[in-house]
Structure formats: structure tokens, C-alpha cells
Design goal:
The protein has one domain (2-692): Maltoporin, Chain A (Beta Barrel), CATH 2.40.170. It is 8% helix and 53% strand. It has helices spanning 2-22, 400-415, 454-458, 523-533, and strands spanning 35-37, 40-42, 46-49, 69-73, 79-83, 86-87, 91-95, 120-126, 141-147, 158-168, 173-183, 187-198, 201-203, 206-208, 213-225, 229-243, 251-267, 272-288, 303-320, 325-343, 346-372, 375-389, 395-396, 420-434, 439-450, 475-476, 484-497, 500-502, 505-519, 538-557, 562-575, 589-597, 601-610, 628-638, 643-650, 684-692. It has a 25-stranded mixed β-sheet that branches. It has a six-stranded mixed β-sheet with strand order 1-2-3-8-9-7, with no helix packed on it. Strands 4-5-6 form a three-stranded antiparallel β-sheet, with no helix packed on it. It binds copper (II) ion.
């Protein structure tokens, strides 16, 4: 078995190299370096996936098909984006260019949970360093998504849309969605809705309990497109109910979010365009440790009611200069968070998890871009101020010495200076040049910062509310945290040699002040943590780290109908100030697909291989994970112009495997023991029908 594993892994990793060696250089070179496969494309600058073409429940899953990207899944719809060794708040995620405020202190409503897959047109991941204009905070990368709100109708007023449903036999997973668009050439009204539902998911070693999900998402929008201006207004809702998150200490009972936003662009003159954006959302979220999973003793019942509210306003202008473009803009985001833990069996029990927490970011940027004869150059600067504050905390109903210790921690927190701010400047320089032979070279330099998250600052009592780290350890915040700064270089090329296309990149990031947990020296916190979880507390602190690696996408066209394609990703993260590896990095992985494609039918089989992850962090007892290989197959048939039939088999060989980034089971009463890494799904058949009009 080991021999086959090694051989398969080697084949997956080396195949592109073999192909390169055989390809004559320079033949049929064009100035396009794009790797395009069904619904996907990868260039040196951007990886793009048409999400509505993929059969999935959690949009974050498509990140696994993007070189360098992966997902930390704490449950069926809680995928946290990971890119080149960074994840969580470090990776910026926008929906229609606007950020969203997560309500859950453990990222149960991570930003990508707001883009249900059947109503999401595209997900784009900036390869390499994100331009400063894309987002105010983007130290680890940038993911951009758009909802599919239909097209304007050039041929007069028209009604268009789709209805579709997909079903998966493992866990009776169903996703159903529809869109209705009324449009003419300048006005458009679109109504979108998706319903996702499932029972318990099975793996080759048994059921993951709880793993059911129920999510409803809707969006109503109006858009205007004129000669010199455009407008988009939208309002939407997300309602998630009773959804398991086995890798976390509690499950989702509900997440109710209202969202609204507006965008406008005006062309003031031939050379000046103005853009304005505003967004707001409001989340109410309840989670507990007894409703969906095996309940503890009545005295240990816990539920956490969390709210998050916030918004974003930005204004930017683009000036067309002689042979370049200058963009300048200002941006302000604001978010408020509260969370209170209670026990329904004990009216006395209450712990203020977060009280009156505010985190505001204001920034301004300038970005200059020139497309020249000797290459394209981009230089961007963003000056940023992050301000955070939190209210006084307390607790009640905790007995004995434990109650005294918790009161001590609360008193210390309340007496401390909780109002903090950080000022910094981010800088990005990108250069790309096209050589005679059609190779596009790209060099990017970046220096970017991230101020601490509110959890990293204001977790005053050792708890596992850590933005979804899911390491089973209790953390306390650090009120004197510095921001972290990543100095990064990315070098890569894109080569299009006729039938063969490839776009590899290497990167190196030196991160000063990298924020992660270290063993706490607070004896009271350690005592409380020891009594609650069996381990002493970890305290968010600034350490020094480095992350480096490489990733690539490639495609080889064998004939009109046949092609091979694949991606490979590798990221290595370690501390510089101590001998330890960074937590929860996806292991080296690669995939190879074989596709047969005609006008109305495409059939793909892919081999996905993950190496073992033995570069694990000691500070929080991260477990190693063995490697594995999976075979998947998919079919898309356009039966008529308006009817699409889809079928898919995941894990065709019914392999027993554990995804390193999936987390450790925390839920009692599951077929997977508490403390054991969650297993991947067993062989799963899915089918779907989509009718568009
Ligand atoms: Cu939650």
C-alpha cells in the first residue's frame, strides 16, 4: 500500500514536470497564460471558479481547487479560507466587493457561508499579493465573490432565470435554488433564493454526529446601467438553523443575518471615474453544547448568544493619466460584537464572553498602474488606522474557588486600558513582463499588516472562542498585542506553449509579530483553564514566523476532446523565535484530472493526493495526519439549451481518510471518538438538474 501511495503521489507531483520537458519551447506561443478547464481558470494573477457550476454545499470547498488555497472546515457550512499558510481574519473575503461582519466569535458564519453555491457566480482568488485597492486588511490574501444576479437584456424587457436542485445520497444533502430576473437594457430587478438541507453525513468509519445542516439565503437587488453610470442596490437574508460544527465546542442553533448594500460608479469625464460603496449587516446567533450533540450533565449545559453588527463605506476615484492609471480612495469599516454565555438549567449562571466590543478600521490608499512596453508596473500604498475597545465584563452563578478566580480575571480586565489603536502603512509593488517567447514573468513585493482581532484582544476568560481555531485549547487575549507585519515576495511565470499551459509561483513571507497562542504566565487563567478543559491556558501573543512554498496550475490538451489538468500546492510555516511549526497548515497536495469534452457533454475523472502532515505545532498539541489519495468523477450534460444534467461521485474508491484542516471531533455521541481527527465522507453519489430560461 505504501508503495502505491508513494508512486501515486510522485506521479501526481511529477507529471507536470515531465510534460514540460517534452514540450517544444516557443511553439504556437500566444500572449495568454490562462489555464482554463470546465468552469475554472488560472492565470499568474488570478484563479477563478464559476461556483454555480460546481456541485457543493459550502462554497469555501472550491478553494481546494485553487493553487495555494485550502479550507479549514469546522462543519458542513463553516469553511474558513486558507491561502499560502494563512487563514481566518488574515484572508480578506468580499461579496460583490463588500466585506461582511461575522457574528460568531468562532467564525461559524465565516464570510464564505454567506455565498450559497448555486446562487454564486464566481469566486476569484488573487494569486500572490493582493493589491492595496482590493481590501483594507488583506495580509494573507484576497477572495472575491459575486452573487449571480442575472444579465441586463439588450433586446428589450425580458424575464430570465433558473430553477435547480441537487441531491446527494450521503446524508440526503439537498441544495435547491432559483433566480428570477426582470430586465431591460438599463434596469434590472433580481430575486435569488437558495435552500440547503441535510441529515447526518457518513464516513467509512461511521457517522459524524452532529453534521446536519439547514441554511436559507435570499437576495433582492436592483441594478441600473447607464452610459456613464451604474448602480446596484441589494438587501438579503441568511437563516441558518441547527447545523453541526463537530470541530468546535458548540453547534449552530441559529444564525439570522440581514444584509444590505449599495454601489455606484459615475464617469465624471473621459479620465475620471468615481466609485462609491456602502454595506451593512446585522447578525444574531445562538449556539449551544447540548441541543444537537450528546448533552453533558445539566449543570454543564452552555449556550452562547452572540451578535455582530457593522458596515463599510468606501469612495474611490480612478484618474486616467497619460500612460497610466491612478486610483485613490478612502475606506471605513466598523463592527460591534457582544456574546453572553448562559445555562438554561441555571438562571443564575451567566458569563459575559464579549461586551460592547468595537473594532473600526479607517484607511486611505493610492495605487498607480502603468502598462508599458517594457512591462506592467503597479505601486500601491495604504495608510491604515485600526481602533478597538471593549466594555466591562462580569459573571454570575459560578460557585466556590472557581467563581473567585473568574471574578479576579474580570476585575483585572475591567481595570485595564482596553482602548487600543494601531497605525500602519501597507505597500505593494507588482511588476510583470511578457518575454518574446510568450512567457509572462511576475515579481511581487509586499509589506502588509494585520491588527489583532477582537478575540485575540478581549478574550478575558480562558475559552475556545478563537475565530474558529478549533484546536480544543482555551485562550486568553492579550491587551498589549502589536499588529503583525508580513514582508513577502512572490515570483512566478505563466507559459502558454500551444497545447500546454502552466503557471507556477514561489513565495516567501517573513512575518514579524505573528499572532498566535503561547503558554500563558497568568496563574489565575491557567488554574481556571485547567479546571474547565484539563489544559493550562494559551495566551495570544506576538511571535516571529516565516512561511514559504510554491504552487502551480497546468493543463495539457491531448486532442480536440481530451485534456489533462492539475494543480499542486505546498506551504511550510514555522516560527523563527522558537522551534515550532505553525498550526493547521494544509499538507502538500496535488490533483490531476482527465477530461473528455464535447459540445454538450463533459466527463472528468480526477485523482487528488494529500501528503501526510507531520509539520505540526507543539504549543497546542496539534495531531499529525497521514496522507491519502481520492478518486472523484463528474459529468455535466447540456441535454438542451435550457436543461443541464449533472452527476458526480466523490471518493469513488471509498477511501478512509482524514483531512488535516478539518479539525478534531469535540462532540460526544458521534461514531468518531472525541479527540480524534474527523474523517472524510464515504463514497458519495450526487445528481442535479438545472433549468434556465
Ligand atoms: Cu457560534
Amino acid at each position: 500500500m505504501n508503495f502505491y501511495k508513494t508512486t501515486a503521489m510522485a506521479a501526481v507531483l511529477l507529471l507536470p514536470a515531465v510534460v514540460v520537458a517534452q514540450e517544444p519551447v516557443g511553439r504556437g506561443a500566444t500572449d495568454v497564460d490562462e489555464v482554463i478547464v470546465i468552469g475554472r481558470s488560472v492565470t499568474t494573477g488570478l484563479a477563478m471558479i464559476k461556483v454555480d457550476r460546481e456541485m457543493l454545499v459550502d462554497t469555501a470547498t472550491v478553494l481546494k481547487d485553487i493553487p495555494g488555497a485550502n479550507v479549514n472546515a469546522n462543519g458542513p457550512v463553516t469553511g474558513i479560507a486558507q491561502y499560502r499558510g494563512m487563514y481566518g481574519d488574515r484572508v480578506s473575503v468580499v461579496i460583490d466587493d463588500l466585506g461582511v461582519v461575522s457574528g460568531g466569535p468562532n467564525a461559524m458564519d465565516a464570510p464564505l457561508s454567506y455565498v450559497s453555491p448555486m446562487i454564486t457566480e464566481e469566486l476569484g482568488m488573487t494569486r500572490g499579493i493582493a493589491s492595496v485597492s482590493l481590501a483594507p486588511e488583506s495580509i494573507g490574501g484576497h477572495v472575491s465573490t459575486t452573487l449571480s444576479r442575472g444579465e441586463f437584456s439588450e433586446a428589450g424587457s425580458a424575464l430570465s432565470g433558473f430553477v435547480g436542485s441537487r441531491f446527494s445520497a450521503n446524508g440526503n444533502v439537498s441544495t435547491s435554488a432559483g433566480r428570477l430576473t426582470m430586465a431591460n437594457d438599463s434596469h434590472k430587478v433580481s430575486l435569488l433564493a437558495e435552500l440547503d438541507d441535510s441529515d447526518t453525513i457518513s464516513t467509512p468509519v461511521g457517522e459524524i454526529r452532529p453534521s446536519q445542516l439547514h441554511r436559507e439565503r435570499s437576495d433582492l437587488s436592483y441594478a441600473f446601467a447607464g452610459d456613464k453610470s451604474s448602480v446596484l442596490l441589494f438587501a438579503g437574508r441568511l437563516n441558518t438553523d441547527d447545523t453541526g460544527t463537530s470541530a468546535l465546542p458548540m453547534d449552530i442553533r441559529y444564525i439570522d443575518t440581514n444584509l444590505a448594500g449599495a454601489q455606484a460608479t459615475v464617469e465624471l469625464s473621459d479620465n475620471v471615474t468615481l466609485e462609491g460603496r456602502a454595506a451593512w449587516n446585522d447578525v444574531e446567533h445562538l449556539m449551544d453544547n447540548f441541543g444537537l450533540r450528546a448533552a453533558p450533565m445539566p449543570a454543564m449545559f452552555r449556550q452562547n448568544l452572540a451578535t455582530g453588527t457593522g458596515g463599510q463605506i468606501s469612495v474611490a476615484a480612478a484618474f486616467g493619466l497619460l500612460d497610466s492609471t491612478l486610483r485613490v480612495g478612502v475606506d471605513a469599516t466598523s463592527s460591534d460584537h457582544d456574546a453572553t454565555i448562559t445555562n438554561p438549567n441555571n438562571a443564575m449562571f451567566r458569563v459575559d464572553n464579549f461586551v460592547g466590543v468595537e473594532r473600526d478600521v479607517s484607511s486611505l490608499f493610492a495605487e498607480w498602474q502603468r502598462d508599458g512596453e517594457y512591462g506592467d508596473l503597479e505601486i500601491g500604498l495604504r495608510a491604515k488606522r485600526v481602533a478597538a475597545d471593549a466594555g466591562a465584563v462580569g459573571s454570575s452563578g459560578i460557585m466556590g474557588g472557581m467563581g473567585d478566580a473568574v471574578a479576579l480575571l474580570a476585575d483585572a480586565f475591567n481595570a485595564a486600558d482596553r482602548k487600543q489603536s494601531w497605525n500602519s502603512v501597507d505597500a505593494v509593488v507588482k511588476y510583470r513582463v511578457q518575454t518574446q517567447s510568450g512567457t509572462e514573468w511576475r515579481v511581487e513585493l509586499g509589506s502588509k499588516t494585520r491588527a489583532p482581532s477582537y478575540q485575540e484582544l478581549y478574550l478575558w476568560l480562558p475559552l475556545q472562542a478563537t475565530g474558529g481555531l478549533a484546536d480544543g485549547r482555551s485562550y486568553i487575549g492579550g491587551l498589549d498585542l502589536d499588529e503583525e507585519r508580513s514582508n513577502e515576495i512572490t515570483i512566478g511565470f505563466g507559459k502558454d506553449a500551444g497545447r500546454f499551459t502552466i503557471s507556477p509561483q514561489v513565495f516567501f513571507k517573513r512575518v514579524d509579530g505573528y499572532i498566535q497562542g503561547v503558554p500563558s504566565t497568568n496563574m489565575v487563567a491557567n488554574m481556571v483553564s485547567q479546571m474547565m478543559s484539563g489544559y493550562p491556558a494559551l495566551e495570544f501573543s506576538n511571535v516571529d514566523a516565516e512561511i514559504y512554498g510554491a504552487d502551480l496550475a497546468w493543463k495539457l490538451e491531448l486532442s480536440e476532446q481530451w485534456y489533462l489538468d492539475g494543480i499542486a500546492s505546498w506551504a511550510r510555516g514555522k516560527r523563527r523565535d522558537a522551534k515550532d511549526d505553525l498550526y493547521r497548515l494544509a499538507p502538500p497536495n496535488a490533483s490531476v484530472g482527465v477530461t473528455w469534452e464535447s459540445d454538450d457533454l463533459s466527463v472528468t475523472t480526477e485523482l487528488v493526493a494529500y501528503a501526510k502532515q507531520d509539520k505540526v505545532s507543539v504549543y497546542n498539541n496539534e495531531q499529525r495526519t497521514p496522507g491519502y489519495e481520492l478518486v472523484n468523477a463528474a459529468l455535466i450534460w447540456s441535454a438542451t439549451d435550457s436543461l443541464r444534467v449533472e452527476a458526480r461521485v466523490d471518493n469513488l474508491l471509498d477511501e478512509t481518510y482524514q483531512d488535516h484542516t478539518a479539525g478534531i471531533n469535540r462532540a460526544g455521541g458521534s461514531d468518531i471518538p472525541v479527540g480524534e481527527r474527523l474523517y472524510g465522507t464515504e463514497r458519495t453519489l450526487s445528481a442535479g438538474l438545472i433549468w434556465s430560461f
